[in-house]
Structures are given as C-alpha cells and as structure tokens.
Amino acid sequence: MLDQNFIEFGENLIKKLDANHVAVDAALWVYSQEEEVWNLWLSFPRLVRKGSQQAYSEVLKALLAIPGVNKEFSYYLDLVTIAKADDHLLRLIRNEFKTGKGISHIRLTDHFIKGQLVKDVLIYRLL
Question: Is the pTM higher than 0.90?
Fold first, then answer.
C-alpha cells in the first residue's frame, strides 16, 4: 500500500523541483508487482537529453532542501526512477490521462489501458 508519507514526499519533491525551475513533465508513483515496491517515476525530457546523471543531480538538490528528508536523502533517492519519455508504460498512461502543470492525485488500480494491466499507479502530473 502506498503510504501517506510517500504521497506527501512525492508532492514536496515536485514542489521543490518546480521552485528550482526543473521542468517535470511526468511524476507518478508506480507499483512493481515483481519487486513488490513503489517507485516515484519522474520525467525531465530536457535534462535526460543531457544524461540521467544531470536529472539525478537536480533530484538530489531538491531532496536536500526538504526538511526531514534531507537527513535520509539516500533512502529517498533510491525511491526515485528517472523515466524516459518513451517508456512503454509511461506512454500508455500519458495517452489516456493529462493533468496540467499542477499536482493531481489520480489513482489507477487494476486499470486496463489498451489491453495492458496497470496494477497500481498514483499520478501527480502528466503533461
């Protein structure tokens, strides 16, 4: 189950990235059934073109600015996945949902998109 603390962490991280003028075009929690873990997928098309290292650097800078999280930044950084804009699952969800630039809370559980099961996802932002 996606813990409320994780949900708040995701919101705070997006807000910090926005405040740092990092263009986040996708942000969503994705549950991996195989690994039985949640990961916060973030997509930064402009940064990824420069390499995922730049994207992780911006995430780390934002993490260090969140009170409480900064003390355990390595734990929280492990929860983050830099998603490529052409990722199959991300494209499927993006074709069905758009949120605008704010922070939404769209939950998909056992949802089928074009015949593919999306087990569990919490969408904050999809542009």
Answer: yes
